[in-house]
Amino acid sequence: MTTSAAHPSEAPLPTLNKLGISSLPEDIDARKVASEWFALFADKVTSNDPEGITNLLVRSSFDSGRPETADQVSVYWRDLLALTWNFRSFEGTTPIREFLTDRLPSAKIANLKLKTSDDAEGLAPVFARPMPDLAWITGFFTFETDVGFCSGIFRLVPTLDEQQRVQWKAHCIFTNLEELRGFPEKVGNLRDPTPYSGGWEKLREKEKLFEDAEPTVLIVGAGQSGLTAAARLKLLGISSVLIEKNERVGDNWRNRYDVLCLHDPVWYDHMPYIPFPENWPIYSPAKKLANWLEFYADSMELNVWTSTTVSHIEREESTGLFKVKVQHKNKGSERIFTVKHVVLAPGFSGGSWYTPTYPGMDKFKGQIIHSSEYKKAVDYLGKKVILVGSCTSAHDIGMDLYDNGIDVTMYQRSSTHVITAQSVVNVFFKGLFDETGPPITVADKVAASFPNLLNVGIHHRGTLAAEEAEKEMLDDLRRVGFNLNRGYKDAGVLLTAFTRAGGYYLDVGGSQYVIDGKIKLKSKSAMEGFTETGITFADGSKLEADVVVFCTGLGSTRDVIKTFLDPKTFQNVNEIWGYNNEMEFNGIYGDTGVPNLWYMMGSLGLCRFYSKRLALQIKAIEEGVFGERYKSKV
């Protein structure tokens, strides 16, 4: 694998060369090094000494934030609720020192303990060399604050002291709220002990109807986002109702095209409390996942109102409560809920799909649909089909059409990041979300402990490694005219998915169809418009078609929110999805700009992890222990 030290994405990486290390000792005792560093760290934390803590961190000539060049190294601290009641990533010793000065006194950190053995909550200190020029010791620890029990992870890298001796200092620290003091999840020995003796079914029906009391939380949408949020809330003793427009839980997957299958692996997709069985396929068929979601809702005893829509949400300024008007499709009945919290979980687009407009669309005598309307290839037998778009749905549909003998052409509007689904496992998930990985609770914390500011460099390296492994396939794609890119900041698929929810293809075979000409390709010329019989392009060429399928992704999340909320409340809603200046998500899982209005969205893996963080915030608010959000000063 070749890397370029001059590439901007390299800047966050603590390479041995930047640290001045020409060679490492052969007998590194990870536990001893971690224990010695952690003892100093714990002492400085409990004595409220921000300067002393930052002296235990890596320093460079540039310590106020992001390195200006790839030759400099920075330092990171990511906090999820534990010290900030927010999702924050601090870069550079100066911002970290300021954050600690502001927050340490009120947090009242105590009882710091280093993990010295592996279990479901953490791992013993370990030395790793993930790449030839990267080396670190990882340690897990636990601690308490005035309101809860927390976990943490640190990574130590080798530096040189004044005598040119190796001295280990922290390059990245992660702190994370796990549990509110006095309010644990009702699992294990805290599970419900009631012997229902035949009365369980009636109690469940009564609970679901909310005839005698209002739920504390109303959740719009019962896909994986809404279900995971409801499950977390339930086990924290917070009542909720899920409003689902479809007839059955899982229809958001069940009603998509027949050949739809998840392209991320099963090890990353487990849901909280009920993991997939051990024989579950690596890549979940959509209809199988749909049935699982329905089973999950029933098993977790979640209160779902199906065939019901939300027509309006209004926030009362005087009380802060939400009035939510819902309508049952079949019964025609209407109800207005009055709730303290609303969680919007309608998916990335809430069923709003993006179809661009082109001149002449009204003149086209064929059929124009969005990929969300496509069901199965047999509906298009004997027809010529053009797919506008070159990401996941275009490849999936293209393969389905060709396999059923249908003439299909993919029109690529802009470049696409392509990586095989297997490379995601081999490069990005290896040893973490795979068959050999640690318990999912540990894997989630390890993944979260890398701030996205740092992930840019790590994932850039991973993308280069994947490119090397897939060179023949990628060269063949370029040869047939397929335009490629390396994703967000040249850092590959995961950061691209997290910021765009599109723009990439996890290859499960579709690329070979394009290479072999089974899916014909049109690229490198702008689409000008429609004729009665097809599409014209800027280079003067034309494509004849009977059907045009726009595989152009999702609509605006904010537009979906706007359809629910009263205008006065909506004007205060922050940006939703994508990254802020710290590369933390905008708006989701935390502060939306409107008190007690929440947004829950993302992949199964994101929902599994962040549903707990969302539920902890709601529980803390309800119990009166939620502190002040520590917001960016920028």
Automatic annotation (TrEMBL):
Gene3D superfamilies to which the protein is assigned, alphabetical: FAD/NAD(P)-binding domain
Pfam families linked: Pyr_redox_3
Signal peptide: none
Residues passing through the membrane, by range: none
GO molecular function: flavin adenine dinucleotide binding; monooxygenase activity
Superkingdom, taxonomy of origin: Eukaryota
Keywords from the named record: Oxidoreductase
Alphabetized PANTHER family for the sequence: FLAVIN-BINDING MONOOXYGENASE-LIKE PROTEIN (AFU_ORTHOLOGUE AFUA_4G09220) (PTHR43539)
Record-given protein name: FAD/NAD(P)-binding domain-containing protein
Organism in which the protein naturally occurs: Agaricus bisporus var. burnettii (strain JB137-S8 / ATCC MYA-4627 / FGSC 10392) (White button mushroom)
